[in-house]
Structures are given as structure tokens and as C-alpha cells.
Amino acid sequence: MIAPSAVRIAEVGKSFGAVKALGRVDLDIPQGELFGCIGADGAGKTTLFRIICTLLLPDRGRAEVLGFDSVSDFREIRRRLGYMPGRFSLYQDLSVEENLRFFAAVFGTTVGENYDLIKDIYTQLEPFRERRAGKLSGGMKQKLALCCALVHRPELLVLDEPTTGVDAVSRREFWQMLKRLKAEGITILVSTPYMDEAVLCDRIAFLQKGSVLGVDTPCGITGLFTRPLYAVRARQKYRLITALRRYPHAASAYAFGGSVHYSDKRPAADLRDLLAWLDASGLEDAGITQIEPGIEDAFMALMELQGETGTEGADG
Amino acid sequence: MRRSITIILVILRKEFLQIFRNRGMLPIIFIMPFIQLLILSNAATFDVKNVPFHLQDFDRSSLSAKLAEQFTGSGYFRLTGESFGSTQAIGELVGRRADLVLVIPKDFERDLEVSGSAPVQLVINAEDGFSAGVIQGYTSQIIADFNREHRALFSAAGAGRVFPEIRIKSSAWYNPELEYSHYMVPGILVILVTMVGLFLSGMNVVREKEVGTIDQINVTPVRSTEFIAGKILPFWIIGLGELSLGLFIARFVFHVPMQGSYLLVYLVASIYLLVVLGMGLLISTVTETQQQAMFIAWFFMVIFTLLSGLFTSIESMPHWARNMTMFNPVRHFVDIMRRVMLKGSGLAEISRPLLILCAYAVAMLSLAVNRYRKVSA
Fold first, then answer.
1. Does domain B51-157 have CATH number 3.30.428.10?
2. Chain B within 8 Å of A83 (Cβ-Cβ)?
3. ipTM higher than 0.90?
């Protein structure tokens, strides 16, 4: 049985003056899912989230959230939604406790009523109860923001880059919390610039320049990458990339950490020929190993694909 | 309805928490206005006293000395020097050592006794037209007095002729001692209440925008009317508190009389504050930063103050400016305050400006709510 949709986006577009933030986005997120949005800065993640949160009106198309229209039934949505903007948006001059109480009261509830939901997070904040929100550390601010977004037990939780600027330990803890919230039956929509976090989602959407490049499970997404992939290493990295890109059979070459991920246009690459090419380019120390494609490779491939179809579309 | 009241109270509580936690803001709200009231009310007076006065007496007779004495003895003029060269007098004026030069020509006494009239020259520094007018008023009064006494002297010594004359005795109503502070304090109070109200509310919503908290509020079920009400109420209370303190100072420091009813003053103030706060929130919703809001609030504050009739009388403004003042809420409240406090006007007498304020309040509040809704939707 397919779960009913928590969010259903149909042909939604939004422009700010001459800048097109969202082209034509379609998205369907079933209830209870932990759904991730990845994409570079300016890809349109925040705009999409703000439309879902009823903070922005779409120029065209329709967004249905928890069965309600985002424009006409925005009040119903706001009652059932928890939103954590990318920028810390609580009252810095109010204490932890005052913030939490304020947001509970505004939703017509009390902290006590839904305490079981936020208990795990709140116990970590408890020692700083009296401290002003502005004086908290980054990780603590993020926990407080999550508490405030959860205090009315929302059915849908929208988190816009919640872990940006947060240390690695806090990031891991945060994702564990999200798993627990998912177990409570809350649908979670989260955006992140970190690919290692994207893998933790049930499904991911790739956003690029205001359109969704693809939606799939982390496994499915990496499965999109069908070509053999190689990690190529050499001391002179910049020279290596340019040499690989000039190679006649090259499909793609991108820097990934210490190595360059290279894919070949042919079904099976001729590694000896490639090594000879690199040797001729003055890279005698080059080494090649075949690797499993990761989510970032898939993202790059999708972007490449979009680039090709994009130029075709521009002509027509 | 009950839900709305709860939410408004929750926002109200939050606002008060924030206001009282802001160490920089508290003195601005509660101390600065009263320092201003004390300074402005004492300084802003139309009285011209101790005018520096230069004498050129070319006659040097007993009569010319008597005339000069009447100037120095009047209490308005302070003799700063004497000279006999015509360029010297101009030098005194330019050097700001004198604002008035009295020139008594040679043969003043003889001419007066022989022909009954003699000219004197008064040179007044008219850089500030208003003060010059006041000085001129004083001088013509002194000279008229001198004429009268001089004639009486002659008629007593002469053939016993009687010179008929009309004496004008005036008395000022509603401010019999012509105390300028009685006239100024009610108006300055209005300016203070306006300033605190306009700036506090003008900075408020835009601050939430700057910090980003507005997003967090907008995704809650709080309605725009509830939000605006929760924002206005704290400043409305502060505004009325401010007015009360000001009235207290007016009564016990400046001894400004209260001829009318305090109740009426508070009724008008509570409506007036809605106008000011609505306007502040409107500014706050259309701007993006506190700096922008500050400048717009200043712009209106200056225009409202200058066109309020507080410092310059509205009757003396050109026709178009006089019409413009009708749209100035400050003008109406200044007007009402003076009328109620000094004249004891009642509700019926102030109904016209009060109705204008009511209309203004409705317009401002609906605009503010409407603008806020557009921003948030």
C-alpha cells in the first residue's frame, strides 16, 4: 500500500524579478518519509521550502501540503507544520526556556503537552535553560530551534540546511534525532549541502538551477551511474584534470578530495592507453583504480546530463 | 476570540520581556524624554530679554539722557556700549555686540521743545525676524510712554491744555501671565509621546525581519491582526505611561494648569497613540532594515513637528502649508492638548480634531495589517 502524500508539488515555478528561482518543479513526498533535497547554493532549495511552508506564493503551479492547498488553506498547514529556517531565527534576547514557551503558547499548546517528543533533545539543553538563545553555541542553537519547531507536534517538519555550520559530532547526533522523529511518524523534509548526509535519507531530490534533476533512493541514485568509474591519482592534480579532460574518450573528470574521478565513454576503458596518454602529458606518477560510484558522482553525472539537455532545450 | 486574546497576551508578554531586557533601550524610553521635556520647556520661549543695546547720543541733553534711561530701565535692554561714529554702530551690529542701536540726533531736545516733534533712529538686527518683531514692539512701547510723559510735562508747565488720548489696557485670557511654558509644555509632551511611539514601533517589526524571527512567527497560526495587536499594545501602554509622567512633571514642575479633564486627555491620547503606532508599524513593514526605518521615521517626525504649530503658529503659515497641517496628527493633538489643558475645552469643542484622529487611526491600522499580511503570505 502506498502512503498518502505529505507534500505534493505540481509544476511549481517562482521568479524574483528577472531571477528564476524555480523553473518547473514536480515532487511527491509520501507521509512518514525522511526526504532530502541536495543541490548547490542558489539551486532553489530554500525557495521550494518557503513555498511549502506557505511563506511564499508560487507564481504558477500548485503545492499541496498535508492535503491542504498552500495558498488557500495556509492556516491549516501552519498549524501542522514545523519549520526550521536556514538562519537561526529565534529570539536571541530571550532565554532557551522563554523561546520554547513562547512558541508553544503561540501554537496553543504547552511544553509539557508534547514533552515526550522533545525530551531527548531538551534534556541536553536543560543546563542552559536560563541562558539567552543568542549566547548558545552553534550546536545548541540548532537543538533549540529543532525543539521550537517540534513543540506543537507537527505532522511535517521542514528543515532548511539544519547542519550547516555545525560541528561533525553535533551533525551526527542531529541525524540520529531525525531518525527518531521519523519513527514517531513525522514526515521530514530536509535540505543539506553535505552528500554524506544525503545518504541517510529515504529518498533524495537533486536540485540544480531551479529544477529537480532526479528523485530516487540513495542506492537508486548511485545506480544511475552506469559507466565504470576510476580514481586517478597524481602529484600535479590540476595538470591531471586538464590532461584527463583532453583525453578523447573521456566522459567526465572531477576532483574529489585527493584524487580525480574519471569516467570513460567506452563500455570498458583501455587503462593502458590512458596511462600512456597521461605519461605523454608529463604525468609519469599517475595511478588508476576502479571505484564504486558515490552519491556525488551521481550528482555530477546528473548535472552533466542536465547541461546537455538544457542547451538543446534553449534552442527549441 | 478567546484564542486571539491568549495569543495577543503571549506576544505582549514577549515584547515586554524584550523591552525590559534591552539595557540600551530603557533609558531612551524612560529618561531621555523627560530630560528633553525639562530642557525644551525652559529653553523654548518666545520671551526676548536682555537685548544687547548700543547707544549713540549726539544730543547729550537731559531729555536724550531720559529717553536712553527709559530703554535701560525697561528690563528688556542691556546697554553694552556708547559711541559717536556712524560706522561704529554698524560694527556693533555685525559683531553681534548689539541687536539694537538707538541714535538720538543732535538738537533732539531743542527740536522737541520748539516744534513738538523730533526724530530718533532705531536700528534693529533682523536676522531673526521673530525676535526683531518683538524688539520693535518693546521699543515702540517705550517711545510711546516717553511721548506721553513728555507731553504731560509740557502740558503741566504750559497753558494747561489737555491732550485727549485712548489708553489700551489688554489682558490675556487662558494664560493671564503669558507664561510661555504653559503654552509650550502641553505641545512638547505631544512631541515626546509621538517620538517614543513612532520610533519604538517603527524599529520593531523590521528588527524581527532583520534577525529573521519573522519567518518563525509567520509559519505559526498567529494571524496578522493578532500579531499587529500584540505589537501595538506594549507601546500603547508605554506611551500612556510616558504621558502620565509628563503630565505629572507639567503639573508639579512647570505648574501648567489643567482646566479641562484628565480623562479627556487620556481618551484622546489613547486614540492618538493608535495613529502613531499604526504609522510606525507601517514604516516597519515596508522597510527591510532598521536604518531605513529610522530615516523614514525621522523624516515624518521632522515634518510633523515643524508643521504642528508647536514652535511657529499655523495662522502665520502660507495657505498651502496650513492645508497640509490638517493631515498632521501631531498638529491636532497639540491643538487638543492646549485647548483642554489651558482653556478647559470639553469633548464637544474638540470633536472635530478628535474625529480626524479617529479616521487617521483606522486608516493607519488597516494599512499596517494589510501590508503585513502581504509580506507574510
1. no
2. yes
3. no
